[in-house]
Amino acid sequence: MSHSSRIGIFLSDDKVVVVESDRNKPQKIISAPLASSTESPFRSDITDEIQTVALLQKLFRENKISLGPACVSIPLKEVILRSFVIPWMPAYELNNGVYYEAKKYVPFDLKDVDFVYQPVAFAENKQRRWRIILYAVRKQTVEKYDRILKQIGCKPFVYEPSPVSLIKELIARNDLKPDQNIAVVYVQQRHGQIIFYEKGSSYFVREFFLPVPEGNDPQAAVHSMRTSLFSEIKKSFQYYNRQFSQQKIEEALVLSDAADEKLGGILMEELSVKARTVDSSVVAGQQTLRGLEIMCACGVCLTNVPSALTSFNFLQKKGISQSSTAVLSWDLKELWPALHTAVIGVLVLAGAFVFGQLKLRDIHQQLDRVVLRQGSFANTPLEDIQTRIKANKDDLNGYKNIPLHTHMASLLVKVTKALPDGVWLKELNIHYGQSDRVVLSLDGYVYSADTEAQFKIVNELLSNLKAQKSFSSQDLQVTTMQRQKLHNRQVVYFQIKTS
């Protein structure tokens, strides 16, 4: 494999795409379905990863693809795209500024993600600001790709978001210019996505699903799908214009696996924006393959694109893109007073350090003697010790109040005998309160053909319970009694509790 060769990889839920590229031109393109195991009871991330590795090894072997630097285009579902504005600051302060601002927008702890970003300078109300285009990916996702590439024998070279790979491919094919403000629409069967780019940077991405048309009329089905598609695209344009746009989108680019020349014209009429369709096919030798995954796997290998696009590489971790790096200069004459003060300060600090070390040694010896006396409680905070003492006391009091003998079984029998005909219980609660006092709570329904007699039956139940010796000392009361309809029959709902 030559020095300029790359291996492009795109892994989706149901497909694996591998591209062997040399000098920014695809030489081989292989697309293979990934067997679905979603319904298998033994499915896990590990089994999916093993299946992916086995399929890649087979594709490399059967198609005689040489191992080399691997460029992975990470699917949109595994990437987080955020665009936000921060106040103007020097370029060398951007890393810290973006880090603290990103905490508001990334739904994970920043320790668990890798992110790359591009700052775009703009003016708002005559004030300079930074628009930050940030991509984030979970570290476990990066680690997954590391394991897969290691097992197939490839060295990781580029991990980049698929929207970046797509725009690189479109620019390389001269389908659009790097400085255009454009919306790219992709539709595959019922799944679609729209990506808004400004001068090569993706500001906003929206995915959507088109409903299944009803009926058997093919023309009606096509009309229904187009209506739904235009509605989703219009919503996306409206949201983008409200939230992001500083400049108007100049054109809509429609990618579709199935060539549909009319789609661009209809879209132009619906949105009043210039639109055109672009063939999503990629040619490599005698091969011609179509699809967004193919374009992304080819685009991730490209190097003949604007440098701003090549900075979105997760393997570079956090950092300012190459297009925004600042160069700082210093005048040593201005720094001399500060250096003079710094030298004196260092000498003073050195003397204080030596004196402090001598004192610190004595303190450590005293501390060691105290720790030896405290034993296992040496590193336990006082609040924790007090909490443990209180918890132990509470547990001890609870153990003392546990009843050793109960009459729960006989109480249940007595409640059952007290139920008149037509009464059924929804909930029954019997427990022992203070001084082993029996506490009773029950609620349920009464049904009788004579609806006027239903309230009497509730009172009869209350009398039966009070007649029982176990409940005679309790102040039982009917707390709720109201008419309801249950399965189209008139019933009375009641609650009886110990007051």
CATH topology of the largest domain: Nucleotidyltransferase, domain 5
Please list the strands of the largest sheet in the order they lie side by side: 3-2-1-4-8
CATH architecture of the largest domain: 2-Layer Sandwich
Q: For the report, how would you describe the main beta sheet?
A: 5 strands, mixed
Query: Can you tell me the CATH class of the largest domain?
Result: Alpha Beta
- Total strands: the figure is 19
Average pLDDT level: 83
Domain count, please report it.
3
Estimate the strand proportion. Answer: 25-35%
Distance between the termini: 87 Å
As a whole number of angstroms, the C-alpha radius of gyration is 36 Å
Structural class: alpha+beta
Gross morphology is extended
The helix fraction, in percent, is 25-40%
Any low-confidence stretches, pLDDT <50, length ≥5?
318-334
> Counting H and I runs of at least 4 residues, what is the number of helices?
12
Topology of this structure?
Elements: E1 5-11, E2 15-22, E3 25-33, H1 45-62, E4 69-74, E5 80-87, H2 94-102, E6 113-124, E7 127-138, H3 139-152, E8 155-161, H4 162-172, E9 181-188, E10 191-198, E11 201-209, H5 218-243, E12 251-256, H6 261-271, E13 274-279, E14 281-284, E15 287-290, H7 292-299, H8 332-374, H9 382-400, H10 408-417, E16 423-432, E17 438-446, H11 454-467, H12 469-472, E18 476-486, E19 489-498
Helix pairs in contact: 1-3, 4-7
